[in-house]
């Protein structure tokens, strides 16, 4: 049974109880609060293993809570899953760029939320992996030291940017990266490039990877992720 602690932040009591019941049944230790201010206080004092954060909150909203926590010396490492109403693509992109790890749209399935929580907790546990370590996932082997990619034992010839995008995504399978995060991660903040050019690079990367190109998934309105 799980023993991780999870902070649930939502101002609707029905949703609090729904999430609390399903998480507690899986063995998680659950704390629920209903405002952004309480979320900040509880996160800083209790340091939960993960936060499920509604974006529409009274007082300090969810995006501001995320922004404040991700710059906090004590609580900045805590993974955050956003709960967001359908159609809030701009808020999803903003939240991910502020440092949130994933998002679930309302109305949501408790089973999907549980799966996302397990996935994010696993990723957090693996986050200490050295960026220079060889990544092997599915039939791909990515060697950052040699800047070499093998698919089923055969070398794949990639440009610098294509390799950077593939390594960034594959290092964190299942994580959603916005186009801005991809630009920042591959070229740095000072590299001027458009969202469209990221799409072009990904299209070229998929083509070169052949059948392995299906591992790179488009998250509509947000960005890309590598299939787990």
Task: Output the keywords.
228 residues, alpha/beta, Rossmann fold, Arc Repressor Mutant, subunit A, 2 domains, five-stranded parallel β-sheet, four-stranded antiparallel β-sheet, 8 helices, 12 strands, 42% helix, elongated
Taking all Cα atoms into account, the compactness measure Rg is 18 Å
What would you say the CATH architecture of the largest domain is?
3-Layer(aba) Sandwich
Strand order of the largest sheet: 2-1-3-4-5
Fourth CATH level, the homologous superfamily of the largest domain? Response regulator
Helix content: 40-55%
| Overall 3D shape | elongated
* CATH level 1 name of the largest domain: Alpha Beta
Using the coordinates shown, work out and report the CATH topology of the largest domain.
Answer: Rossmann fold
Structural class: alpha/beta
Low-pLDDT runs:
none
Supply the number of structural domains. Answer: 2
Largest sheet: 5 strands, parallel
* Number of helices, where a helix is a run of at least 4 consecutive DSSP H or I residues: 8
- Range of strand content: 15-25%
Distance between the termini: 23 Å
Number of strands: 12
């Amino acid at each position: 049974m799980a023993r991780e602690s999870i902070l649930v932040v939502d101002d609707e009591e029905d949703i609090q109880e729904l999430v609390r019941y399903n998480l507690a049944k899986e063995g998680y230790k659950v704390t629920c609060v209903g405002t952004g201010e309480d979320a900040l206080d509880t996160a800083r004092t209790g340091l939960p293993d993960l936060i499920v954060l509604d974006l529409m909150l009274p007082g300090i909203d969810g995006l501001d809570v995320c922004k404040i926590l991700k710059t906090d010396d004590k609580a900045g490492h805590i993974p955050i899953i956003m709960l967001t109403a359908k159609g809030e693509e701009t808020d999803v992109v903003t939240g991910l760029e502020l440092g949130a790890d994933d998002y679930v749209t309302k109305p949501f399935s408790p089973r999907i939320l549980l799966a996302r929580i397990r996935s994010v907790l696993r990723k957090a546990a693996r986050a200490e992996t050295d960026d220079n370590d060889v990544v092997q996932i599915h039939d791909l082997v990515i060697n950052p030291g040699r800047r070499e990619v093998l698919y089923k034992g055969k070398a794949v010839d990639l440009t610098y940017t294509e390799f950077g995008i593939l390594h960034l995504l594959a290092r964190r399978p299942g994580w959603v990266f916005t186009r801005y995060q991809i630009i920042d991660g591959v070229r740095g903040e000072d590299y001027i490039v458009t969202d469209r050019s990221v799409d072009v690079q990904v299209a070229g990367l998929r083509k070169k990877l052949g059948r392995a190109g299906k591992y790179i998934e488009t998250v509509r309105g947000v960005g890309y992720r590598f299939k787990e």
